[in-house]
Design a protein that fits this description.
The complex is a heterodimer of chains A (458) and B (1035).
Chain A (H helix, E strand, L loop, with lengths): L1 H25 L8 E3 H4 L3 H17 L8 H8 L3 E3 L8 H6 L7 H26 L5 H26 L2 E2 L6 H4 L4 E2 L1 H18 L14 H14 L3 H12 L21 E5 L9 H6 L9 E3 L1 H6 L5 H6 E6 L2 E6 L13 E5 H14 L3 H15 L10 H16 L5 H8 L24 H6 L11
Antiparallel strand pairs in A: 2-6, 3-4, 5-9, 7-8
Helix pairs in contact in A: 3-6, 3-7, 6-7, 7-9, 9-10, 10-11, 11-15, 15-16, 15-17, 16-17, 17-18
Chain B lengths: L1 H12 L1 E4 L10 E6 L4 H11 L5 E2 L2 H5 L6 E7 H8 L5 E6 L2 E6 L10 H4 L12 E4 L10 E3 L4 E3 L7 E5 H4 L7 H5 L6 E5 L8 E5 L8 H4 L7 E4 L2 E3 L28 E7 L2 H4 L10 E6 L5 E16 L8 H14 L24 H6 L3 E13 L3 E13 L7 E14 L5 E17 L4 H6 L31 E20 L2 E20 L9 H4 L5 E24 L2 E24 L15 E4 L3 E18 L3 E12 L8 E11 L5 H4 L4 E15 L10 E10 L2 E6 L10 E14 L4 E13 L1 E6 L8 E6 L2 E16 L4 E18 L20 E4 L2 E4 L6 E3 L16 E4 L4 E11 L2 E11 L1 E3 L40 H6 L6 E3 L2 E12 L10 E15 L17 E11 L1
Parallel strand pairs in B: 3-6, 13-16
Antiparallel strand pairs in B: 1-7, 2-4, 5-6, 8-9, 10-15, 11-12, 13-14, 15-16, 17-18, 17-49, 18-19, 19-20, 20-21, 21-22, 22-23, 23-24, 24-25, 25-26, 25-27, 27-28, 28-29, 29-30, 30-33, 31-32, 33-34, 34-37, 35-36, 37-38, 38-43, 39-42, 40-41, 43-44, 44-47, 45-46, 47-48, 48-49
Classes of the chains: A mainly alpha (458), B mainly beta (1035).
């Protein structure tokens, strides 16, 4: 009897032992069907490009250059858009009223989205570096695109927030306690990063629709950084290179400025699916009733002279009863959109930036031709040679506003570069001097005390 | 002991025989004299001579035997009956005042399910006796508890196990057993997320162990393990689109089990009980045992119930007059005299005398429900069966025919061989729940819509958009969220006695779940004047489905050994589990017509979501040694070695174990003759259990292909997560001491338990600054959370004799949670979330001092005196939002054929109130009447700041101040039940007919400022108040 029991338990013990050895095997599972390991991604050109596609898609969907981000938020923050929603918790009303505090949800989202794309860019830069099987030319191109995108994101972050964290690795142990890099140093690092990017990229677009940046795109961003550093000469050189490049022709037909096929386009972002509307039209559109979100501010509308074609073609009036509102109408396709992509940079910007650079160097006459090119297309009177530098600069500022209203946060960035943000106080009663930078999200300060202190004034 | 087993058996089976006439068998004395005749005749004679009318025996048992002959003079019924049966394999016992003669059971294995061992066939069904469900007249100590891998007698257990049985949950107008368990179990805090049927529950067993919550990690790390008839079921609801419709998008897995099919519901709490579940036991284990068949006469039971429910509300909202006055004041405070074009409520666009109680209009309908249950049971000595069908339909409080429908079929088959060496039990549960609800909960709208907002419908029945000035809330009725969940659970349990006292048991089962959900948003939810409302080109339909199949294999070997006063019970076993799930989603945008909306192929744009499959594998070895000395000293050792595919190669395995001990001191000599102490036990346990509730594949460094991230036709690869290679197990060390008493012949039972649990190596979603690219990473945090607590339970039978009976039980738990250590807390991302020495659910807030007498503005304490009220430094008030104590008090009364039971639930806590969620006062939102108390020079004691017609920045500080935390305690009449048993003639077709009324959440006492203190949310419908009527027939 007892022997039986012993045998039984011995058998049980043995089978358990056998199980233990095979347990390790029993627990093996394959990676899920929607994931591949990080090293695999960068050993194959197709998957490496897919990682890059993930980044572009993110830029279009939710990043500072997404159609409903800088172009919406900073236009409300400045004087281009009025906000009409009666009550909201999304933080937009505060942006419009210039009563922003550091818990503003819209700004937190903006910050988070930007740094998330920075991470993706860093992951690509790190991954492609380690790759052994992708051809060197493709490795360079991928590194160049990722580095350029990262630079553009840092440019926006620096302009909006001042001193910012400048993460260059994916290691969260480092990044979670990173300190802020002072604004001037950020600009220096950007110039060196962009100077590295320029030789990595080709002038030739890798897609005819110009939906991927080329070398000229990087040069334009670098020119903008040089201008912030008041390095007018270097900026002038780069801008002229762009303008004189055979890749680009000035678009003389005002109705075709937002047509994706134009050769004045430097870089544009393609909507996710074929037929998708741009983010811009989706966010600005309203009809038949009072606006429930934003409409163009009366100030902006009144600034257009009667003959300005931009008012005629790029805005649209909505009348209900005795009230009339205007909405931006640059992008027009609400559905079945096959002709419009979100333009990030277009040649007109290079024109006006060059005009500004030249004016700053007192090259007044040379400057005028570039302002006038834009004015001429708008059908408004041209400037003549007797203008002073200050007049030209303020003329450029006005033209920037009329040309680029609700595009990519132009108004804020242009006024800031020219040191003219305080002029907003005439239109925006709550405007204060310290509004040249926004508050760093409170949550970030709480989670990483190394980025204290908060920007002054908040 | 045998008496006891039968008693337990009868209690469990819920069937007993009772004679209407009062005759106390334990007290009367009998005389009888008999020679050597057949046992059958002897018994018949004995019963007849002594006029014992309440008895039960099987002729089959008795006719086989002849008795020796005996004589009793003035002896007890039991004494005499046993004398008659002397030497036969039969025994007599009295249960529920009934004399029962049955076969002697020689050995009762601990492992055995008593029910299976002693077929009820041993008890004949005497037609003349009235048959009814168990009347629990005295508490039978020998309740047998299901501890998962083994069963243990309540008296002999060393661990902490809470139980509710079928009796407690039957007929309640609820769709989830958790709703009926609220307030009944010490240490188990259950909260219903909301009142929309088919939603989720929060269940916390002895506090929050893990810092992992949905908000910081995406996965609730405090979910218990759910095991149904031995098969673990997933605690996670797969839903993707339920978010706007059901709070947290959560769907409780127990929704798929009809409360009427549940025989018992046990919760394992301490180390002794949970360590055998190893890595999955840290948060407690919820064991569900479904009903089994009963042998003997075919029994048919039919139960039908109808109920109606309405939304609870604890707030009084402003009427039109008050509201309009507030709005006008707001504009005048802002210095605006010409009302803006969009201020329709006061600029003359809308009728300013109109009043609608939007709560009544939008969430004020009576939700009716019906529930029908039919079950059939029967069998013989070796085989029993049960088949049960249930159908339930529940409406909503909206004025549209949304419905929650469930169908359940549960079957059970039980067989044992003639020699009782082989036993087989097969149970299966099939359930189908269909839920169709409004796509987005309207509760918030019902509370915030301006009271003078226009009518919902035109006289012709069309939706009124009031010339495009009104976002009509009932347009939302056109959108729906629906799901269809099919669950098929099967369990096979076979046991074979290899040798005397050694048995091999095999437990296996599978669970298939098919879940499909739809979110339909046709363009008709928008104003047709706007572009999105104009045509079905803007209609959207999304579908998500998941198929999950899991199986479990658990071979076990059990050995009982008894020698003299020593008794051993040894169990070893192994587990292998695999869980495979496949899921996918698809969204279609733009349809030629809304009649095609459910055919996504017809959409103009189709977005196909990821088609993912994931796999979870789990293997373990476990064992238990139970040693009893003199039935007085008990030692219980359990252990488990676990391996899980959720961890990386370096940390795949972990060990867990516990030791429990009990001392039945009432068996010591000094208490032997005690008149008051009938039972006394001191028990304690210490051990570890763990948690692998972290989701699959979290340790991998991968990129995910994301179908929603497409650029120029190339589907993007996105980094899945921050890579953390050193991912390891979370462990909870648990200690418990408890004292149990049975006093005055167990008419008063008391239990006091103290527990002390510590969870370390916390696996949390560690919040990161967004600069890192992610807002969190899953990592083991070297932090320790301690949960201690005291649980007191008492139940008493103050009145047991006569027509009137009263039974009462009370439980109260005092949980205490504390963050013990957190190295580097101040420099970590949790620096402002937690404070060492404080509970983990604290919140840091500004301190509202009041209103500045000059400026009329909120004034907050500027702790760092920098002239500004800013975060971190000035958020110094720490409010504790954890429950201070909670419990329940239940009472059962019986008078003749009437039964009444009442259950009160109480919770003492502080909660976030309505101030935290309401919009800045003065905007176009209705507010509670409390908001009329506004500060002004004339009303210097006003609580709120003057209204503003624009967003008040101070309001956001106010919403993060201590004004948002107040008393959230409540006492609730959770359940009331009144039933009447219709007296039947003996010739009646029915054995038993009962009519009943049940009420759920009928009365609440609270000082909470908010919609409902239980859920504490203002954006979802809170639990409903329900009145139910029903009738039950037993044939």
């Amino acid at each position: 009897m007892k022997t039986y029991i012993k045998i039984t338990f011995l058998t049980a013990a043995l089978s358990i032992k056998a199980c233990l050895i095979s347990c390790e095997k029993l627990l093996e599972v394959d990676t899920p069907s929607n994931q591949i390991t990080s090293d695999q991604v960068f050993e194959n050109l197709q998957t490496a490009n897919a990682a890059l596609a993930g980044l572009y898609s993110g830029l279009w969907d939710n990043s500072p250059i997404a159609g409903d981000q800088s172009g919406m938020l900073m236009s409300m923050y400045t004087d281009e858009l009025s906000y009409y929603a009666s009550a909201s918790t999304n933080g937009l009303a505060e942006l419009y009223q210039n009563t922003v505090i550091d818990t503003n949800p819209a700004l937190y989202t903006y910050w988070t989205n930007a740094y998330q794309k920075v991470y993706m860019a860093n992951a690509i830069i790190e991954g492609i570096e380690k790759s052994t099987s992708i051809p060197i030319a493709e490795k360079q191109r991928i590194r160049g695109e990722a580095l350029m995108i990262r630079s553009l994101l840092f440019y926006y972050l620096q302009q909006l927030y001042g001193d910012i964290p400048y993460p260059v690795t994916t290691n969260y142990m480092i990044n979670q306690s990173i300190s802020k890099t002072p604004a001037l140093e950020v600009l220096q690092r950007l110039t060196s990063d962009l100077n590295e990017v320029i030789p990595l990229l080709q002038d030739q677009y890798r897609h005819t629709e110009r939906i991927y940046p080329n070398r000229k795109t990087a040069q334009l961003i670098l020119a903008k950084i040089y201008m912030l550093q008041k390095n007018w000469n270097a900026a002038e050189g780069l801008l002229k290179e762009i303008i004189h490049s055979p890749l680009y022709q000035f678009q003389n037909d005002i109705t075709k400025v937002f047509d994706k096929s134009g050769s004045h386009i430097i870089w544009q972002l393609k909507p996710r699916n074929g037929g998708d509307a741009t983010k811009e039209i989706a966010v600005f559109y309203f009809t038949n009733s009072a606006p429930t979100s934003v409409a163009l501010s009366p100030h902006l509308i009144n600034s257009f002279s009667g003959s300005d074609k931009r008012k005629q073609f790029w805005t649209s009036a909505v009348t209900v009863g005795n009230n009339t509102w205007y909405r931006p109408n640059k992008y027009k396709n609400l559905s079945n959109n096959n002709t419009e992509y979100s333009v990030v940079f277009r040649l007109e910007e290079a024109y006006l930036l060059l005009a500004e650079t030249l004016a700053e160097q007192n090259k007044i006459n040379e400057s005028l031709q570039f302002i006038n090119a834009v004015k001429q297309r708008a059908g408004i009177p041209l400037l003549t040679g007797s203008s002073s530098k200050e007049m030209i600069l303020s003329e450029i500022s006005v033209e920037n506003c009329k040309e680029f209203f609700t595009e990519m946060g132009h108004r804020f960035l242009d006024l800031k570069r020219q040191g003219k943000l305080s002029e907003l106080s005439t239109v925006k009663p709550n405007w204060k001097l310290h509004f040249v930078v926004l508050p760093i999200p409170q949550k970030e300060l709480l989670l990483n005390p190394n980025i204290q202190p908060q920007n002054s004034g908040y | 002991m045998k008496n006891i087993c039968t008693a337990a058996l009868l209690l469990l089976s819920g069937v007993t025989l009772i004679n209407g006439q009062q005759q106390d068998l334990s007290k009367i004395k009998v005389n009888y004299s008999v020679g050597k005749i057949s046992a059958e005749d002897a018994m018949k004679g004995f019963l007849a001579e002594n006029k014992i009318k309440s008895f039960a025996y099987s002729n089959n048992d008795l006719e086989k035997h002849r008795i020796q002959g005996t004589k009793c003079i003035n002896e007890s019924v039991l004494g005499c009956a046993n004398k008659i049966l002397k030497g036969l394999p039969l025994e007599a016992l009295i249960f529920n005042n009934t004399l029962i003669i049955r076969q002697k059971i020689l050995k009762v294995s601990e492992m055995a399910d008593t029910e299976e061992l002693i077929p009820l066939a041993a008890i004949p069904q005497k037609r003349n006796d009235s048959m009814e469900t168990s009347r629990k007249e005295t508490k039978i100590e020998e309740v047998v508890l299901n501890a998962g891998y083994y069963k243990v007698k309540d008296k002999e257990r060393t661990g902490s196990i809470a139980k509710i049985s079928a009796k407690d949950v039957e007929n309640q107008p609820v769709t989830n057993v958790l709703a009926s368990a609220q307030g009944r179990m010490a240490g188990v805090n259950i909260t219903q997320n909301g009142g929309t049927a088919g939603g989720g529950y929060q269940i916390q067993i002895r506090g929050q162990n893990s810092l992992r919550t949905i908000s910081n990690s995406g996965i609730d790390g405090n979910q218990p393990l759910y095991v149904v008839d031995g098969v673990p079921i997933s605690g996670q609801a797969p839903s993707q689109f339920a978010g706007p419709a059901l709070p947290g998008g959560s769907i409780n897995p127990l929704n798929s089990i009809s409360p009427q099919d549940i025989e018992s519901f046990e919760i394992l709490k301490d180390a002794d009980a949970t360590a055998i579940y190893g890595s999955r036991g840290a948060n407690g284990v919820v064991l569900i045992t479904t009903k089994k068949g009963k042998s003997g006469r075919l029994g048919l039971s039919f139960n039908s119930q109808y109920s109606f429910s309405k939304a609870l509300s604890n707030l009084d909202m402003m009427d039109t007059q008050e509201y309009i006055a507030m709005r006008r004041k707001a504009f005048s405070n802002n210095g605006v005299s010409v009302y803006p074009a969009t201020a329709y409520d006061i600029n003359g666009t809308w009728d300013q005398n109109r009043y609608t109680d939007w709560r009544k209009e939008l969430i004020g309908n009576l939700a009716s429900a019906s529930n029908t249950q039919l079950s059939l049971t029967g069998g013989n000595e070796t085989t029993t069966f049960l088949v049960s069908f249930g159908h339930q339909e529940q409406g909503t409080v909206h004025a549209k025919d949304f419905k929650y429908k469930t169908n359940n079929i549960s079957t059970n088959l039980n067989h044992q061989s003639k020699d009782s060496r082989f036993r087989l039990n097969i149970s299966s549960l099939f359930s189908n729940q269909k839920n169709n609800v409004i796509n987005e909960d309207l509760t918030k709208t019902a509370y915030t819509l301006a009271p003078n907002a226009p009518a919902l419908y035109h006289p012709d029945g069309g939706l009124n958009w009031q010339n495009n000035t009104f976002t009509n809330p009932v347009a939302a009725y056109n959108a729906s969220y629906s799901n269809n969940n099919v669950q098929f659970m099967n369990n096979y349990n076979a046991e074979y006695e290899l040798l005397k006292n050694v048995s091999f048991k095999f437990n296996g089962g599978f669970n298939y779940q098919g879940f499909e959900e739809w979110s339909l948003r046709p363009n008709t939810i928008y104003n047709p004047a706007f572009v999105t409302g104009q045509s079905s080109a803007y209609s959207q339909a999304s579908k998500f489905n998941q198929h999950r199949f899991s199986y479990i294999l658990e071979p076990q070997l059990n050995w009982n050994f008894q020698k003299g006063s020593h008794q051993f019970d040894i169990l070893v076993g192994a587990t292998y589990q695999q869980d495979v799930s496949r899921q996918g989603s698809i969204t279609g945008i733009g349809f030629e017509s809304n009649s095609f909306i459910e055919n996504i192929a017809a959409a103009q744009t189709k977005v196909i979501g990821d088609q993912i499959s994931s796999k979870y594998r789990y293997a373990a070895l476990f064992g238990r040694i139970n040693y009893q000395l003199n039935k007085k000293y008990i030692l219980n050792v359990t252990g488990r070695r676990d391996g899980s595919s959720r961890f990386g190669p370096n940390n795949k395995f972990a060990d867990f174990g516990a030791v429990g001990a009990a001392w039945l001191f009432s068996k010591e000599n000094i208490f032997k003759d005690s008149r008051w102490l009938s039972f006394g036990k001191l028990r304690g346990s210490i051990g570890t259990s763990g948690s692998d509730n972290i989701g699959d594949y979290q340790y991998l460094d991968t990129y995910t292909i994301l179908s929603t991230s497409v650029y120029n036709g190339v589907t993007g690869l996105i980094p899945s997560r921050l890579y953390n290679p050193d991912f390891s197990w979370e462990k909870t060390t648990k200690m418990e001491m408890a004292l149990e008493f049975g006093l005055f012949k167990s008419r008063l039972n008391l239990t006091a338990a103290y527990y002390h649990n510590r969870s370390s190596n916390q696996l949390v979603g560690y919040q990161l600054p967004a600069v890192t690219g992610f807002t969190m990473v899953n990592a083991n945090l070297d932090a320790t959370v301690q949960n201690t607590g005291l649980e007191l339970e008492a139940n008493a039978h103050p009145i047991v004799t006569g027509d009137f009976q009263w039974q009462t039980s009370f439980n109260i738990s005092f949980p205490k949670n504390k963050l013990l250590s957190f190295p580097g807390l101040s420099g970590s991302t949790y620096a402002n979330t937690y404070v060492i020495g404080q509970p983990v659910d604290i919140i840091r807030l500004y301190h509202l001092e009041g209103i500045h007498t000059q400026t009329g503005q909120y004034q907050f304490t500027d702790y760092n005196q920098d002239g500004k009220v800013t975060s971190t430094d000035d958020r110094q008030i720490i409010e504790n939002l954890s429950v201070q104590y909670f419990g329940g008090w239940s009472n059962q009364f019986r008078y003749a054929n009437w039964d009444l039971s009442l259950l009160f639930q109480f919770v003492k806590q502080k909660s976030r109130n309505y101030n935290a969620s309401m919009a800045s006062p003065g905007l176009m939102n209705n507010l509670p009447k409390e908001l009329l108390n506004v500060w002004s020079p004339e009303n210097p004691s006003g609580y709120y700041m003057p209204y503003r017609s624009s967003v008040n920045t101070l309001h956001s500080l106010f919403q993060n101040s201590d004004a948002t935390v107040s008393d959230g305690s409540f006492i609730r009449l959770k359940n009331i039940q009144l039933s009447y048993r219709i007296p039947l003639k003996e010739s009646s077709l029915f054995r038993d007919v009962k009519i009943y009324f049940q009420g759920q959440n009928l009365w609440t006492w609270t000082r909470y400022f908010g919609i409902d203190p239980e859920s504490g949310t203002s954006s979802f419908l809170p639990a409903l108040k329900t009145y139910a009527f029903g009738i039950q027939f037993n044939l």
